Amino acid sequence: MTDAVTTTGLTKRYGRRTALSDCTLNIPAGHVVGLVGPNGAGKSTLLQLTCGLLAPTEGRIEVLGHTPHTGSPRLGFVAQDTPVYGNLTVADHLRFGAHLNPGWDKALAQRRIAELGLDPSQRAGKLSGGQRAQLALTLAIAKRPELLLLDEPVAALDPLARREFLQGLMSYAAENGTSVVMSSHLVADLERVCDYLIVLVASRVRVHGDVDELLGTHHRLTGPRRDPDTLGPGREVVQASHTDVQSTLVVRSTAPVDDPSWTSDRLDLEDIVLAYMAQAGTHGRDRVLEKR
Q1: Are 14 and 25 in contact (CB under 8 A)?
Q2: What residue stretches are annotated with the ABC transporter domain (predicted)?
């Protein structure tokens, strides 16, 4: 299998509001995939469709070669705010996970809890935000899923807790070859851990692809003012701004830009994402793409 998730024309509407529109994607297996976009872009909707919590309004989705359904042992899901049961102890959570999941890896769960220094008798409601996130991640990966879905799992964590969470996630993914799709508005975190990127803006996919390929093919061109349409084939203008004498273009190029009148600069991942947001006419960047 080469794709963990395949969608064709996937659409989800709630009455008159469209949460996800005409989404066509092939998310490769064996990768850590970053799903990024502003609040309300459709990230949570796509993840919930992927794990079977929602049904499409239109279109098709296959996950690991099958129609998704809730409770699949092949999927692990950590929802927003890393929900745990405040009145249950850490040990209670592990027993609950073992009861619900026939493929439960008891040794993995207990080893992670010990490595994290969590007290099995501690109630989850008394844990710190980072500890609750780590407990939720432990419950998800002890299922031994083939695909792990994470919906902004580190958004509310402090920088140290975020780093520890991501280190644990990366160690597990690297050791087990698990496919991971993680939504986040923290591009610095995604740039550190993801090798594939999907940008969702206003319910639509704006760009997706291998991170190295995206970084290698996007450039900022600065030169004398000109019509972007004159750049020629193989060059997609993502964003353009102009003064009276100068043009600045963000370009995705499959052909070399060898015009000496242009100054070409490489972009980082945040620059690329913000350019596609601007292309889509998005101005509400309230919580999106923070660098911390």
Answers
A1: no
A2: 5-227
